[in-house]
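Please, structure for the following, as tokens.
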Amino acid sequence: MTLMPSQIWLIIGISLCAIELLVPLPTFLIAGAMGLAALLMAAIALLLPIPAVQIVLWMIIAGMLAFGSRRFIPKDSVQLREAGQGITLTEIPAGKSGRVQYEGVSWRAICDDPQISIEARQQVIVLRRQGTTLIVVPESWLEQRI
């Protein structure tokens, strides 16, 4: 069974959109943008049969959609209150990054103390934000300091 290019784009588009909707760690709308671009390419592939041109056009459309979707991701300090609480989704190894769920959104996070690792599913305190990375400490760390 041979699939037509439009069918391949349709499968890719549906898969990427499903990843955006079903994966518990949000992909910050990137997978969704790539999926929508692939769905659009399924229609364009019927008119434009050259695979190399299809791929380049898909990358351009996906890039524009991803760039346009960035405004839907919370960035300002009104959305991120100082000293809020979150929960780790993955382990945060000492000196490395992991994922934290904060206000219903998954964020990249690092521990403020590079000597401490934080287990998954642990409560953390969000101290501040650097770009799209949260600086956190485990809740127990603050209790030890008091």
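Strands lie at 84-88, 97-102, 105-111, 123-130, 133-138. The radius of gyration is 20 Å.
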